[in-house]
Amino acid sequence: MWIGTFGGLSHYDPQTNIFTNYSTDPQNPSSLNENKVVNLYLDSEKNLLWIGTWGGGLSLLDLNDPLRADPKRASFINYRNNPDDPSSLSEDSVWAIHESADGYLWLGTQMGLNRFDPNTKTFKHYTEKDGLPNNVVLGILEDDLGHLWVTTNNGLSQFDPLEETFTTYDSSDGLQSNEFNSNAYFRTRNGTMYVGGINGFNLFDPENVRPNPFAPQVALIGFEIFNQPTKVDLSGRKPIQLSYKQDFISFEFAAFDFQAPQKNQYAYKLEGFDKDWIQAGNRRFATYTNVPGGQYVFRVKASNSDSVWNEKGAAIPIFITPPVWQTWWFISSLVVVLGLLVASGFRWRLNAIREQNVYLETQVSERTSELRETNRLLEKEVEQRKRAEAELEKRAANELKQSEARFQAIFENVAVGVAVMTLGRRPIAFNAATERIIGYNAVEMENVDPRSLALPEDRGMDIEFFKELIEGKRNSYVMERRYRHKDGRVFWARINYSLVRDLDGNPDYLIGIIEDIDEQKRAEERFAEQEAEYLLTLQQRVTERTHELEDANHRLQNEIERRARIEKELAEKAAMEAVAADRTRLARDLHDAVTQTLFSASLTAEVLPDLWEMDVDEAKRSTEELRQLTRGALAEMRTLLLELRPATLTQTRLSDLIRQLCEAFIGRSRLPITLKIEGDCKLPPEVQIACYRIAQESLNNVFKYARATEVKVDLFISPSCVRFEVCDNGIGFDLSGTKPTSLGMRIMRERAEAIGASFQVSSTPGSGTCVELSWNENPNVKLHVL
User: 3-state SS of 296-360?
Assistant: First the structure.
């Protein structure tokens, strides 16, 4: 049996009960490429093991190789993304692997769907530009017709490998959510498919998922002149009469298909004005301006959500009355009148020419001298204007040069990196600060993709933001992530992308700003590590002190027995006082919260009489709060007693211990807890203590860091397994940027490993945190709890 974890690849032999572990070896290029294994797939011949990793690409192990049993001699074939090779893997995080019936290997990555040809060893990519709804592919299933069903972060898509077309389904089609989870997909023997996401899971039979074959009816539902609604007959039985002055008109239309109306598509044209159909997408209106007078027909057609078109559509004739000077009778009359005028004018002109010839001859000499003088004056004026224009151009050039110099000085001397980039993130120019931060100069960056500077696991963080930016849906965004300097070191940086539009408002180019925040991030990590080490030291000191107290009690008991006949009462009193003093001091050091809770309860009790007289509802709420405070104080005291008597942790049922912890948490934090407990039985002592300590640490983290308003605690117990989960809706954190020692996670993980349990923390900034512990007495049997 093969097992993939974040620590590498393992093989378990059930006959010998031995694990063989494989991991990355920097000295051996044929070793496993990355230890973070997220997906395993055994080919149809059971000969090849395909391994998908997080950030390390795709690896292959030949199970027929006799050397594969030795981790030091086993040879892996590794495939990774090469920016200079378009036929390489599109991205190095492989979340899903599937072998289709035709022998191709299909891979789900963070940069689209990949098809691997085992014969040519090449990859073909399918991304959003090919119709995929989202580039993050998390699951792949195949139906009996050879179609692939792909789960993504923005819907479920059916892919036809022969036609290379995608058909996408989302929450409007009945899916639990548009966002799916990794490794949450399964096909049963009868062909039923299960796909899971953030709001549950869906099951469906691919044979029953068919496109809607019915073309929708289309109707014109509105008409406007100069953006003012106008009542006209939109049935098409009679034309709309307009004046040439009404040169700004709009039509509104709709398709009567309500299965997924946001996916309906429209096309329209004005016959006599438009040469071809205008594809409007899901826009339901059309606007025309400056349409000449004449007869036209406005037509509109639509498709349903599955692209079945109603080609007939709807139509309505339009007659626009032309202006008088464009009518045929006006033009004809004008031609006749002009003909008469030309004929009479020709006669008159002949006579006039004869009379004027004599006069013109006398005037020619006079006008010649006047024209010469006028030309001289004009030439002088032209020369003066040329000198003035040359002076203005020189002044404008100087001002432009000074402005450019000021901008260049700011651009070169600003403390942060600034770059001018194309919409494809190719640098056009960047300042010295940018070169200092990333280590590359302008010439070197001509052959470097800026996206490759970010660590592989951070590259996908701004995919959606950047897409919205270049589409003009947002003007800027800011994000923090890790980059690799030219010298190889990794550093944190804050990036700010801003969109610059052209004169028409369309996206033109980008301004990128990068700021080195590595020192700040490193300081935060050091502080978190110091805090975790302090908590571990404190717990160790408490444990040592508890052992010391137990030893002292044992010695004291022996002393009491030896001197029982002489000083029995005195010895017992001294022992009780010594134990009470130690317990009091330990209780004061560890549980000041009890005093705070009782003090709050006391204050509430003091004002209750006055509240009953002033506001009965508020008094009732305060009474309920007093009850919660009292229960919390009692729970804190019980917890304190458990700390003083560790043996009690194994004598009390785990369900009662967890319930007591939750009551203490409510009294201390005033936060509501939804507690769900299923099953109850006696557990091995070491399992019970580990579960209790992890639950205690998880609730303490929620109280200290989460800023949550709701907490959910689930506990499932059976004689052979335990599942415990704490979830909150707090601020969450970035797992990729958090050290394993943060928030006490190392202590909790060590406790879980000590009893052979699995421990997992899942969190996203702004979406809360979940801590999950699963223990199974038989490690060969997987635990499934719905």
Answer: EEEEEEEECCCCCEEEEEEEEEEEEECCHHHCHHHHHHHHHHHHHHHHHHHHHHHHHHHHHHHHH
Q: Going by DSSP bridges, is the β-strand pair 673-678/711-718 parallel, antiparallel, or unpaired?
A: parallel
Per-residue tokens: 64: 């027929």
- pLDDT tens, position by position, 653-688: 888 888 888 887 787 777 888 989 998 888 888 888
DSSP 703: I
- The structure tokens listed for 172 are 């409007």
- Dist. CA 698–CA 50, nearest whole Å: 36
Question: Which tens digits make up the pLDDT trace of 533-562?
Answer: 877 887 888 788 778 878 877 887 887 778
Distance of CA 339 to the CA centre of its chain: 76
Mean pLDDT computed over 323-329: 71
Q: Please enumerate in sequence order all residues whose Cβ is within 8 A of that of 459, keeping only pairs 6 or more positions apart, or say none.
A: 91, 110, 451
Query: Which residue in this structure is represented by tokens 């023997």?
Result: 189
Question: Which helix (H) or strand (E) segment is 660 a member of?
Answer: helix 654-669
β-partners of residue 109 are 94, 112
CB 457 within 8 A of CB 54: yes
Residue 591 has pLDDT above 60, yes or no: no
Distance CA 682, CA 362 (A): 134
> 142-157, pLDDT tens digit by residue?
999 999 999 999 999 9
CA angle 33, 38, 40 (to 5 degrees): 85
Helix axes 616-644, 518-562, angle to 10 degrees: 70
Q: How confident is the model at residue 408 (pLDDT cuts 50, 70, 90)?
A: low
441, 442, 444, 450 alpha-carbon torsion, rounded to 10°:
100
Q: Is 573 exposed, middle or buried (0-12, 13-18, 19+ CB in 10 A)?
A: exposed
Question: Strand, coil or helix: what is 277?
Answer: coil
